[in-house]
Amino acid sequence: QIFNQHNADAPNLEQTFHRMAQTEPNLDHDVSWFLLPSYWAKMVVALISFLCFANSYDGDFVFDDSEAIINNKDLRAETPLGDLWYHDFWGSKLSSNTSHKSYRPLTVLTFRMNYLFAGGFYPVGFHVINIILHCTISVLMIDVFSILLGGLQFSNKGRRLNLAPKSSLLAALLFAVHPVHTECVAGIVGRADLLCALFFLLSFLGYCKAFRENKEGHTFSVFWVLVSVVLGAIAMLCKEQGITILGLNAVFDALVINKINLLELIRKLLYKDKSVENAGLLLRKGLLFRIALLMCGGASILYIRWRIMGTGPPAFTEVDNPASFADSLFVRAINYNYYYSLNAWLLLCPWWLCFDWSMGCIPLIKSVSDWRIIALAALWFCLIGLICQALCSEDSHKRRILTLGLGFLIIPFLPASNLFFRVGFVVAERVIYLPSIGYCILFTYGFSLLSKQAKKKKILAVAVLGILLINVMRCALRSSQWRSEEQLFRSALSVCPLNAKVHYNVGKNLADKGNQSAAIKYYREAVRLNPKYVHAMNNLGNILKERNELHEAEELLSLAVQIQPDFAAAWMNLGIVQNSLRRFEEAEQSYWTAIKHRKKYPDCYYNLGRLYADLNRHIDALNAWRNATVLKPEHSLAWNNMIILLDNTGNLAQAEAVGREALELIPNDHSLMFSLANVLGKSQKYKESEALFLKAIKANPNAASYHGNLAVLYHRWGNLDLAKKHYEVSLKLDPMAPGTKENYNLLRRKLEQLQKKGG
User: Fold this and answer.
1) C-beta separation of 411 from 116 below 8 A
2) Which leading EC class covers this enzyme (predicted)?
3) Nearest to 128 by CA among 141, 116, 118
4) Burial of residue 55 (number of CB atoms within 10 Å: 0-12, 13-18, 19+)
5) How far is the C-alpha of 262 from the C-alpha of 754, rounded, in Å?
6) CA atoms within 13 A on the CB side of 250
7) For residue 349, what is the enclosing H or E element?
8) In CA terms, which of 268, 350, 373, 577 is 20 to 30 Å from 153?
9) 3-state secondary structure (DSSP) of residue 2
10) Do residues 348 and 391 touch, judged by C-beta distance below 8 A?
11) Is it the case that residue 16 has pLDDT exceeding 50?
């Protein structure tokens, strides 16, 4: 449906648009920059944005990628596609009290497609898609900036005109090479922000497409307004920020399409000036209808989102966002504003970047005597100055650009501002991907003003080129840091030395690589910086347990469960330590407490079974291990222990049945093959036992016990030459293998006796 947008009281808007083209100052006139044809401009932006982040293509899965991708069952083919619509970004049910409520099913769907096409968790494909998305967004930015900086105008043939080609190219380059975007591009979970931005921009361009001119006068299309709403909904299904495009479309409509002067409108409303209606400033035909469509669409999207979410907002902890837990409203307000100033600084000077800004990285401001108050004052001084210029300037061109710049800077940031609900972070570089559009508008406009005043415009252009070059280098450096967890975590030590999570992650990375001594140092520092950091206590307790420093391990784990009584992993680890200290009753109680807080905890059932086995409570041990395998059918250790216990207690038939059941579920597990082969050998099923031993050896040829037990089988079977061969292989692999040397000596004596008889 097409509506005419002119009436008897207002001038024809087609004439208004052509008049604007003639009378408004052209931003490009004062900008000393490159003028390229549209196609070449887009090629340049695409190439430079690719060069910035190309070295991240072969990076690993890092930081949040583990939870969102590797441990997310929604990526696997066995999970029904329909489940994606009822799960959060991390694969948990939205109805769960532990869910983060981050509803991004379309982003998860793209991860799933990556996983299925690659045939597994190969990070290259994930990274390449992210780089392509950022390049595409950067190219689209040329069209978006041409509208925001040059206005929305069409040729006689209905094609949109780019009235600011130089300015839009500069702004798009600034966006493409901004180092703050590295987290979104080089970090795979940043795809949520990239997809959201893509559909965010498409929604804006779709809304602009609703205002094409024709011979009858300037018109608008309801179809394209509705398309814009649908694209906004898709953006929100990629990440929550996407919904803000509907508000920005309304602002754009009022300022650019209807050319409303906000200050003049407010004055007329305050003084009840009847000329408001006559001037058509408020009730232009179609404006309220389009805003009503946007509002209805937005309200419907939010209502559906609320119904799917099922419960209240997510429960974050104080370490995630300490300011939001402050009792004083003054402290909360001061710190929220300080966080805003830090985000603004990251846009202005993106040199100090960090993967995580929580856990003491930014200490709370608790008094007005704190020197950091200066940052708040500077932020609001600049914002108030810009707002005044945007409202009060007599230059309509200046008012429009500044208002749009501030709108794109502030409105997409609102969901992360803590104003409407508590968020789970202090500062997050990923959330300023969209607000950086506003920064690029303001920077470009500022550059045009400086160029207008400058006598040597080329020097100014060289300075901007220098900024772009520095940003490209910073992007490349930061991308290389995101290629591995070790580089990423260590890069944060100099930026946020007070962040306990940074030290924790460095320690965890070292522990995963087997460097326990260095890991202990970082875990201790994490606990020192945050004495309530239960995860650091748990991991440190685990390492100390493995190093047989049991008493300190018990102290740490006891403190962890005291601080967080429902911390199931710490209860289980405390049980393991108590078991090692031979305090069996306490260990059993700790295990059951862990299971109480985490009903489906196969590893805890496994450890409980080991405790019962140590106490010769064989039936209880078997039941505990059976529970572990029911909860986790691929739990190899639990299956193995059941087979071995049944074997050792003489229940060979039952051991054989359990072994066969296990191998059906885990057919390629060589340790299960070995255990079942031992049982079959004792049951004199030599041929089948031999086949399993050989299969196990093929899978793990350097296991001395595999060769040694196969040698015993051949020894019993009477294949003495083969027995001798495998005894020798076993002894070569492990000269101290228990029993093997004695058996080998017995075999040699028997062979010597047979030779003497034969002689």
Assistant:
1) no
2) transferase
3) 118
4) middle
5) 109
6) 18
7) none
8) 268
9) strand
10) no
11) no
Which single residue is written with the structure tokens 């009822």?
86
Residue 313: the pLDDT is 67
What does the pLDDT read at residue 216? Answer: 46
Reported as a single tens digit per residue, the pLDDT across 297-335 is 999 998 888 888 765 667 777 878 888 888 899 999 999
Mean pLDDT of the chain: 88
Q: Taking each helix axis from N to C terminus, what angle separates 105-118 and 123-150, rounded to the nearest 10 degrees?
A: 140
Closest-CA residue to 231 (of 212, 253, 246): 246
Can you tell me the mean pLDDT for 681-700? 92
CA angle, 241 then 247 then 250, to 5°: 150
Percentage of residues of the chain with pLDDT beyond 90: 63
pLDDT category, 204, cuts 50, 70, 90? very high
Q: Which class would CATH give 499-599? A: mainly alpha
Comparison of pLDDT for 168 and 6, the residue scoring more: 168
Size (the chain), residues = 759
Measured distance CA(232)–CA(210) in Å, rounded = 15
**H or E segment at 220?**
strand 217-221
User: In terms of C-beta density within 10 A (0-12 exposed, 13-18 middle, 19 or more buried), how is residue 264 classed?
Assistant: middle
Dihedral (CA of 300, 305, 307, 312) sign: negative
Which residue in 550, 608, 555, 611 sits closest to 577, CA to CA? 550
What does the pLDDT look like over 238-257, one tens digit per residue? 999 999 999 999 999 888 88
**Residue indicated by tokens 């340049």:** 44
Distance between CA atoms of residues 444 and 460, nearest Å: 12
Residues 689, 694, 696, 700: what is their CA dihedral angle, to the nearest 10 degrees? 150
The answer to whether the beta carbons of residues 204 and 404 sit under 8 Å apart is no
Q: Could you report the per-residue pLDDT of 177-187, keeping only the tens digit for each? A: 999 999 999 99
Lowest-confidence pick of 90-99, 102-111, 172-181: 90-99
Asked if 272 and 203 touch (Cβ cutoff 8 Å), the reply is no
Whether the CB-CB separation of 426 and 362 falls below 8 Å is answered with yes
Res 312: pLDDT: 65
Burial status of residue 521 (CB atoms within 10 A of its CB: 0-12, 13-18, 19 or more): middle
Asked whether the CA dihedral 427, 431, 433, 436 is positive or negative, the reply is negative
Region of 119 (left: φ > 0; alpha: ψ -120 to 50; beta: rest) is left
- Tell me, what's the pLDDT at 157? 74
Dihedral over alpha carbons 433, 438, 442, 444 (to 10 degrees): 60
pLDDT at 284: 53
d(CA 204, CA 227) in angstroms, rounded, equals 10
Spans of all domains in the chain = 35-309, 499-599
CB-count burial class (<10 Å; 0-12, 13-18, 19+) for 409:
buried
**Helical packing angle, 636-648 and 670-682, nearest 10°:** 10
Cβ within 8 Å of residue 423, ≥6 positions away: 316, 321, 324, 415, 416
State both tokens at 273: 């000036």
Residue 217 backbone dihedrals phi, psi, to 5 degrees:
125, 175
Confidence at residue 23, expressed as pLDDT on a 0 to 100 scale: 43
CA 31 to chain centre: 39
Q: Which helix (H) or strand (E) holds 566?
A: none
pLDDT in tens, 128-142: 999 999 999 999 999
Longest dimension (CA), the chain: 129
pLDDT for 661: 95
Tell me the one-letter amino acid at 394.
E
